Amino acid sequence: MKDGVRRFLVRDAAVRGEIVTLGRAWREVIARNPLPTPVQDRLGELSAAAALLGATLKFDGSLVLQIHGDGPVALFVVEYRSDGGYRATAKVREGAQVEPLMPLPALVDAHGRGRFVVTLAPSGDTPGQSAWQGIVPFEGDTVAAALERYMERSEQLPTRMWLAADGERAAGLLLQRLPGDGPQAAGAPDADGWQRLQQLADTVTRDELLGLTPDELMRRLFWQESLHAFDARGCRFECRCTREKVSDMLRMLGRDEVEAILAERGGIEVRCEYCNQAYRFDLVDSVALFHAATGTSSTARH
């Protein structure tokens, strides 16, 4: 199965849906950031959710889903970009104990201070668009439930999600009712379609989400419905970290701070939290950083 999101529409019921399968892209994430199984699987579910929600972005930019935790897990974060690029990571607190079957609330909301954050960040090339962020208390026993609560709180369209992940794949199904002036309004040919489609989707199993192709899943769940399916939209693992960006961060620290770290440790290593790439800087690199920043290199003078 190719990584991507398949969209479909149930015309008479004015319900749209999406099915996502992440295979290679998901395995790239967990290969670079080994995590305890309960943490890994929840990150996979959040990855599938981000792809489902991000596939409909109407601007160039990114959707970022975060769960800030007060339990063993300090943070889940997934970024999905409008071009299909995706990355994800999770932070487990040092020394924290993660039990094999620990549920999501115990991982991130142990003391009731968990937070769910959604950020929409247009690229710098998107005119007339500014970043937007919504923050709500963490609610729900699963990633799907937390997202559904968020959508309800933010007064978005009625939305349901079914998510699953393991060490090979992350997958999900989304159903969303279209606005009230559509065919589901009074007198519509299929006014009960929203309720019926939810009931059909509720029969899906974890194994089916992870094992069936999008076309197979649509046939399994909605074979009696009048579906219009669209082409799949691809998704891939892609981290945006670069040595140049790390260099810019070190310049922001300032020459004195960087030199103090070098004196103490003999070198600086900055590791990307998403892809685990290590960027190393020694004394020579440090001199070059600030020499270039002042614009006084011999190349610049000539």
Care to describe what's here?
- The chain is of the alpha+beta class.
- It folds into two domains: about 5-235, Hsp33 domain (3-Layer(bab) Sandwich); about 245-300, HSP33 redox switch-like (CBS domain Like, Alpha-Beta Complex), CATH 3.90.1280.10.
- The chain is built from eleven helices and 14 strands.
- The strands form three sheets. Strands 1, 2, 8, 9, 10 and 11 form a six-stranded antiparallel β-sheet that branches.
- The longest helix is centred in the N-terminal third of the chain and has 18 residues, at about 35-55.
- The chain is elongated.
Characteristics:
302 residues, alpha+beta, Hsp33 domain, CBS domain Like, 6-stranded antiparallel sheet, 6-stranded mixed sheet, 11 helices, 34% helix, elongated, disordered C terminus
Overall tally of domains: 2
| Helical stretch tally | 11
* DSSP, total strands: 14
Largest sheet report: 6 strands, antiparallel
Question: What distance separates the N and C termini?
Answer: 55 Å
What is the overall shape?
A: elongated
Q: Approximately how much helix is present in the residues? A: 25-40%
Mean pLDDT: 87
Derived structural class: alpha+beta
Tell me the name of the CATH homologous superfamily of the largest domain.
Answer: Hsp33 domain
Note poorly predicted spans.
181-187, 296-302
